[in-house]
Design goal:
Chains: A mainly alpha, B mainly alpha, C mainly alpha
Shape of chain B: extended
Oligomer: heterotrimer
Radius of gyration of chain B: 29 Å
Number of strands of chain A: 0
Order of helices and strands of chain B: HHHHHEEH
Number of domains of chain A: 3
Strand content of chain B: under 5%
Radius of gyration of chain A: 26 Å
Helix content of chain A: over 70%
Distance between the termini of chain A: 19 Å
Shape of chain A: extended
Order of helices and strands of chain A: HHHHHH
Strand order of the largest sheet of chain B: 1-2
Distance between the termini of chain B: 14 Å
Helix content of chain B: over 70%
């Protein structure tokens, strides 16, 4: 009997997911043990998937270097940095001083600097927002952001005036009541969507793993 | 500050300036810094995945069980099958054998989907729905904030209104915009269209979403500004240490 | 003169042949006003010295014979006699007395289909003399003739009552086919091996007039013509239109001749020639209608048109399906002038009905197109045209875009660097603190000190500038209380971030790695890892991170350290604090871990942007998040409660100026946009 591979993959996903999902609501030992086993395997596979992604990254940039495509020098630098860091981490361990040195003086500065660039980008985007899209909701969005920022930032005037108290309380009211209501609705919508998507994956309607 | 620390700070400062140079325009220095970052981050991720996940989860149990103990049923579950699954996943590296690696991906995705569904149902849907059913009694006191009386009644009503209208907007608002068919407005006064009940609910929901996103935008901007401050402080400290060491 | 190829079957023919010996096609085109001398004559024979015209009804038979000779097949015997007892009674009455010798054994099997060499089978024609089967037939006929007193008449001739005896022919000559020229005299022996071998023709024998029953005679309509030797006949061309037999099928030759007489017997046949019975005569079954006049004329015809008996006529289809076909005379028929049938008369005209191209008489289909379909077709057409059209790239003022970015970046950098470099302006620390801050502070203050606190560092290094400052305030309080700390992460770089924070704060409070603080390390898998860790912490993370060297050498894992010695479940921790910048991570921990924490509180240290999405978990009757600390203002307030000045306070001034600058820029952007809108409205 010839079995379609795609049906086999869907069956595997369904079987594994079913026991894990049952474990949330059923307290039988057999179900719990199976659930734990599948969770263990998934954690190991997630770690292996990281290695697979790493190999794929290297192969893409290696090809770029081999074919001398545009920007191949950057790809060569990337591969060099990867090999050095990976080698040091594998040989000396990820908690060694060299790894910490590389992290603190290369990775951390880059990421934080990119975050600093984000600040400029956010401000520029906010500046141009009303010019590009003039509707009521854009104004509500920007007015809320501005008011929250005023209520968050240090008060420019010395002393604790009544106005400052009112502004701070209004800011708290907006972010903790008005925004919380919208956030709860968004959370419920996200949870509903995640449930629907997860069930579709379990039932084989959607197969993001391929096949 | 010791010399290695000084050198390290100097390197960090150089990298910071290389990235901040993007403010002027995209340039080779920025690209170089980004590629160094990607390479080092990926390499480190691989190293820690091996040391903290794969080695203790696959290699050490295999050595602990030994070749003789592989046949045991417990070893089958804890050693043999995980090894098989990981090796099957590695088949994804080659286009020819990629389709067989789908077995491990299917298991991973299936477990992940179940975790998401279980968490969404038990951790968000039920608790948040119950949380929305707050009592409107003036005598009730909010446990976290201590609110009570009219203040609490208004707040609870606002949160409930925001929750319902936001959900309705997500449910019906997108569909409406796709079809392009407008609803009959309630009235048009001086060029201002007053929407009907359904349109009004969607408009209120959209307003609540705009407020929520505005708060999130303000928070993200303030977080990014704090990081900008931290970077400038780092540059200042590095420069001062450098000048201090040189001087 | 070389041989000529037939245009139809491409077989070679003698140069003097006018018709193809194999298929009968015309080799030389006819003169349009061609002589009518051979129009009604019988087709000539290929045998003997001079080619004689041969009746059209024999043409197809000649063709078959020629093909079979070429293939080496024995000539079928068309004079097979039926077996007594197997035939209908009316036919048996017609059968002559005495069965032929072959009939008894063969049981009605036609000897024509016997292979050569079989008893009674055909033998190849022998040019030296008639074949054996022919001799047998002739002998039989002679016997019969001797018995009946007739010469050369078979049983059918007897039925027909042929008046005269058939003269013995010297040669077999057949009248040419109607409408065709006479064939040139043919050489005695064929020179080409490709030519079909000559075969004796079997002449149909005439039936005897006296032997025909009266009903059959009447069915014949008229007396069959006397059986004649065809070779001696020179059938005159038919000048009169053929007469339609009574039954309306001029092309069907009757079995009985006009005079009811049979054909001439075979006795008078020359050597090498075979007579066919009248009813098997090819001319009676084929050929143009011109053959009919020859048959109907009496002298030249072999078979007289007969009327069908009533019972047979009742069986035939209704006349409406069989229209009467009016066949023109030969002179009136057009001569084909093109194609392989050029020169022939009576050919079905191909042009102009078939060969000539013409427009369809059926009207073209009318497509019903609705307005919507038309509009869609127009849209598609426009889209296709747009694709072909070259669109000029719109030039935008790029310096203007950079100017805005440069200006904003300059303002922000200036506003941020001013307090950093100069120390002014200075802003007072916030005196107002969030409402949840007090409960959080109390919560930490009341934690059991003997149970460790779990710190989860689940944020990217890019957020370390903010979250280090916010988280350190809470971690400081934990350390002040002396609560052991364990760290873990679900991000690859989380362990290093934890290490940096702990290494900065630990020495202040004498926290020794392995004794008061331990790092569990990284667990891959996201939500799956959180779920596994919540269920079985000891089985999820097996190793540690940055353990003291002596512990590593001793093989001691993180779970064996004094910090985690009594911990087997998540609920064994006194506190779980998740430091994260992403709402997704916070939601995952709130969903997956809270169910397994029991009474252990879950506290979130968040970036300012994640607060709105986590607050619903906090503000609930049964909260899944027991404490929130978010943003730099809350961190500075927390530090103020602690009585210390940490990273948050150090960044407060620069944060203030940067926020003010951002507020002004945003306000300017709103004002600019509103002014643009107002001006546009005024222009309208």
């Amino acid at each position: 009997m010839r079995v379609r591979l795609s049906a086999l993959w869907a069956a595997v996903a369904l079987a594994a997911g079913l026991f894990v999902l049952l474990g949330y609501f059923v307290q039988l030992k057999a179900v719990q043990d199976l659930r734990l086993t599948f969770l263990h395997w998934a954690v190991l596979l997630a770690g292996a998937a990281l290695i697979v992604g790493l190999v794929n990254l290297v192969s893409v940039h290696w090809r770029k270097v081999g074919l001398l495509e545009e920007g191949w020098i950057y790809s060569a630098v990337l591969i060099l940095a990867l090999v050095i860091t990976l080698g040091l981490g594998l040989f000396f361990g990820p908690d060694n001083a060299v790894a910490l040195f590389i992290f603190s003086n290369f990775q951390l500065p880059v990421e934080t600097s990119l975050m600093a660039l984000l600040a400029v980008s956010l401000v520029v985007a906010g500046f141009r927002l009303v010019s590009r899209r003039r509707d009521l909701y854009t104004l509500i969005f920007l007015a809320t952001a501005l008011f929250v920022m005023v209520g968050t930032a240090p008060w420019p005037l010395p002393g604790l005036g009544t106005f400052e108290v009112v502004v701070r309380d209004l800011r708290a009211w907006i972010s903790q009541v008005w925004a919380a209501g919208g956030a709860r609705g968004i959370l419920l919508g996200v949870a509903l969507g995640a449930t629907a998507t997860g069930l579709r994956v379990l039932l084989g309607t959607e197969r993001p793993y391929g096949g | 500050m010791t010399t290695p620390e000084l050198i390290a700070s100097f390197l960090g400062a150089i990298i910071t300036l290389m990235v901040l140079s993007y403010l002027f325009a995209d340039n080779p220095l920025f690209r170089l810094a980004i590629h160094i970052f990607i390479g080092s981050a990926s390499g480190y991720a691989g190293a820690i995945a091996w040391h903290n996940v794969l080695k203790p989860g696959l290699v050490d149990p295999l050595f602990a069980v030994g070749l003789r103990g592989i046949a045991q049923p417990s070893a089958l579950v804890t050693v043999v099958l995980p090894w098989i699954l990981v090796l099957v996943l590695l088949l994804k590296l080659s286009p020819r054998t990629s389709r067989y690696g789908t077995l491990s991906m299917a298991l991973l995705v299936g477990v992940g989907a179940a975790v998401v569904v279980g968490g969404a149902v038990s951790g968000t849907l039920v608790p948040q729905t119950l949380a929305s059913m707050e009592s409107l009694s003036p005598a009730s006191v909010a446990p976290q904030t201590g609110e009570t009386g009219l203040e609490r009644m208004i707040n609870v009503s606002l949160v409930l209104l925001g929750t319902i209208t936001t959900l309705l907007y997500f449910r019906f608002g997108q569909r409406q915009s796709l079809t392009g068919e407008g609803e009959t407005p309630l009235a048009v006064i001086s060029g201002v269209t007053i929407p009907g009940p359904a349109g009004l609910i969607r408009a209120v929901g959209k307003a609540f979403i705009a407020v929520t996103f505005g708060v999130m935008y303000a928070g993200a901007l303030s977080a990014a500004l704090v990081v900008l401050v931290e970077r400038l402080q780092f540059l200042r400290d590095t420069l001062s240490n450098l000048f201090g060491a040189l001087g | 003169m070389s041989e000529q190829r037939c245009p139809m079957c491409s077989r070679p023919n003698p140069p003097e042949a006018h018709e193809c010996w194999h298929c009968g096609a015309r080799l030389t085109p006819l003169d349009p006003g061609g002589s009518a001398s051979g129009s009604a004559s019988q087709p000539g024979s290929r045998l003997g010295g001079e080619r004689q015209p041969v009746p059209p009804e024999q043409d197809w038979l000649d063709r078959i014979r020629a093909e079979s000779e070429a293939a080496g097949e024995p000539e079928p015997d068309f004079t097979a006699e039926p077996v007594t007892g197997e035939l209908p009674s009316w036919l048996e009455e017609m059968k002559p007395e005495g069965s032929p010798p072959e009939a008894g054994e063969e049981g009605g099997r036609v000897s024509a289909f016997k292979a050569a060499g079989e008893p009674g089978g055909m033998e190849a024609a022998d040019e030296s003399g008639p074949p054996e089967w022919l001799r047998r037939i002739r002998a039989r006929e002679e016997e019969r003739a001797q018995d009946t007193g007739e010469s050369g008449q078979d049983w059918l001739s007897g039925l027909r009552g042929s008046p005269g005896a058939e003269p013995e022919p010297e040669d077999v000559s057949y009248p040419p086919r109607p409408g065709r020229d006479m064939a040139a005299p043919r050489p005695a022996a064929p020179e080409s091996r490709d030519l079909p071998p000559e075969r004796p023709r079997e002449r149909p024998a005439a039936a005897s007039q006296e032997a025909m029953p009266s009903w059959l005679r009447q069915a014949g309509g008229q007396d069959a013509p006397p059986g004649q030797d065809r070779a001696a006949e020179q059938l005159p061309p038919s000048g009169s239109p053929p007469t339609t037999p009574p039954f309306g099928l001029p092309h069907v030759q009757a079995l009985i001749g006009e005079g009811g007489a049979g054909e001439a017997p075979l006795g008078g046949k020359p050597e090498g020639e075979v007579d066919l019975p009248d009813w098997m005569d090819a001319a009676s079954l084929e050929g143009p209608a011109e053959a009919l006049p020859a048959a109907s004329e009496g002298e030249d015809s072999r078979l007289a048109p007969a009327t069908l008996p009533s019972w047979l006529e009742a069986m035939r289809p209704v006349e409406t399906f069989r229209p009467v076909v009016q066949i023109q005379t030969e002179d009136d028929q057009a001569v084909e002038s093109a194609g392989p049938l050029a020169g022939l008369r009576g050919v079905l005209i191909a042009e102009p009905l078939v060969a000539m191209p013409r427009t369809a008489t059926v009207g073209s289909m009318q497509l019903a197109v609705s307005e919507r379909q038309y509009a869609q077709a127009e849209l598609l057409h426009r889209m296709v045209e747009d694709e072909e059209r070259e669109v000029q790239a719109s030039r935008r003022a790029r310096p203007q875009l950079n100017f805005i970015r440069w200006a904003v970046a300059g303002v922000l950098l200036f506003a941020t660097a001013l307090p950093v470099l100069s120390g002014s302006p200075r802003f007072s620390l916030p005196s107002l603190e969030p409402r949840e801050l007090g409960s959080l502070f109390t919560l930490i203050d009341t934690l059991p000190a003997e149970r460790p606190a779990l710190l989860v560092f689940d944020y990217e290094p890019g957020y370390s500038g903010e979250l280090d400052a916010v988280g350190e305030a809470l971690i400081e309080q934990i350390m002040v209380r002396g609560i052991p700390i364990a760290t873990m992460t679900t991000r690859p770089t989380g362990s290093l971030l934890a290490m940096r924070v702990i290494d900065r704060l630990g020495p202040r409070h004498d926290y020794v790695p392995g004794e008061e603080v331990v790092h569990l390390g990284y667990l891959s898998g996201g939500a799956t890892a959180v779920q596994l860790f919540s269920l079985r912490p000891r089985e999820a993370i097996l190793q540690g991170f940055d353990l003291p060297e002596d512990m590593q050498e001793a093989g001691i894992t993180a779970w064996d350290t004094p910090v985690l010695r009594g911990v087997t479940a998540l609920s064994d921790f006194s506190l779980v604090t998740v430091i994260t910048a992403g709402t997704e991570t916070a939601r995952v921990w709130a969903e997956q871990a809270k169910n397994y924490m029991g009474q252990t509180p879950l506290v979130m240290v968040l970036s300012a942007g994640a607060e709105p999405m986590v607050r619903p978990y906090y503000e609930a009757r049964e909260p899944r998040v027991n404490g929130i600390l978010t943003g730099l203002p809350a961190a500075t307030a927390y530090e103020r409660r602690m009585g210390q000045e940490g990273l948050a306070a150090q960044r407060w001034n620069a944060f203030g100026t940067a926020m003010l600058a951002s507020e002004f820029i945003l306000a300017a952007g709103i004002a600019y946009g509103l002014v643009q809108w107002w001006m546009a409205r005024q222009e309208r």
